[in-house]
Write a structure and sequence with these properties.
The complex is a heterodimer of chains A (about 120) and B (about 110).
Chain A lengths: L3 E4 L2 E4 L5 E7 L5 E7 L5 E9 L2 E4 L6 E3 L9 E3 L8 E8 L10 E2 L3 E5 L1
Parallel strand pairs in A: 2-11
Antiparallel strand pairs in A: 1-3, 3-8, 4-5, 4-9, 5-6, 7-8, 9-10, 9-11
Chain B lengths: L3 E4 L2 E5 L4 E7 L6 E6 L5 E7 L5 E4 L2 E5 L5 E6 L8 E7 L11 E6 L1
Parallel strand pairs in B: 2-10
Antiparallel strand pairs in B: 1-3, 3-8, 4-5, 4-9, 6-7, 7-8, 9-10
The chains are: A mainly beta (about 120), B mainly beta (about 110).
Chain lengths: ~120, ~110
């Protein structure tokens, strides 16, 4: 079955620690995205990548970093510089990174709690 | 910059009542998508509208794109408890794909 796999599903972190959230897709999609969702809120874009070895900052990139070394993988690191990291993180992919639109496919999300 | 607002923010309905959420943009959109997110789940794509004035139906759901391509609506006829969740629109005028603020629907049995 093709899809997007995010891990871990739940993660607890102490203040001052960096954590990396995994996102893997086997849909052969070019574009991948990371969103943050706070309780009762919409989706805010953190980073996106339209093609391997390239990525751009979204609206709330401060305190986060990403890499796109492989087409299938787009890990997100939440650094200690992120002031309020507790949130639900969603990874998504789209078939094309170009201007033509297509639906987003989402992973099941990773819920990060900072203790 | 482009902004996308959804109204209402919350809606509680009795099962069997109709429900409508509206998505309004400050700029003309190339197309618009709708997603549904169940409580505790992830967003799932419902539909994409491209043409001015376009209307599409999926069983009890009716989606409409405004003539000026600046607004869109999702209407659910005779809601069921399975309709519970948050409905998001997503504008596709830029690479960054702005999501609307979402409408949270609760259906009372």
């Amino acid at each position: 079955d093709g899809g997007i796999t995010q891990s871990p599903k739940y993660l607890f972190r102490k203040e001052g620690q960096n954590v990396t959230l995994s996102c893997e897709q086997n849909l052969n999609h070019d574009a991948m995205y990371w969103y943050r969702q706070d309780p009762g809120q919409g989706l805010r874009l953190i980073y996106y990548s339209q093609i391997v070895n390239d990525f751009q900052k979204g609206d709330i990139a401060e305190g986060y970093s990403v890499s796109r070394e492989k087409k299938e993988s787009f890990p997100l690191t939440v650094t200690s510089a992120q002031k309020n990291p507790t949130a639900f993180y969603l990874c998504a992919s789209r078939i094309s990174g170009g201007r033509d639109t297509g639906e987003l496919f989402f992973g099941e999300g990773s819920r990060l709690t900072v203790l | 910059g482009q902004q996308v607002m959804q109204i209402p923010q919350y809606q509680h309905v009795q099962e069997g009542e109709d429900f409508t959420t509206y998505c309004n943009s400050s700029t003309t959109l190339s197309n618009i998508q709708w997603y549904k997110q169940r409580p505790g789940g992830h967003p799932v794509f419902l539909i994409q509208l491209v043409k001015s004035g376009e209307v599409k139906k999926q069983k009890r759901l009716t989606f409409q794109f405004g003539e000026a391509k600046k607004n869109s609506s999702l209407h659910i006829t005779a809601t069921q408890t399975t309709d519970v969740g948050t409905y998001f629109c997503r504008s596709s005028g830029t690479y960054k794909y702005i999501f609307g603020t979402g409408t949270r629907l609760k259906v009372l049995a």
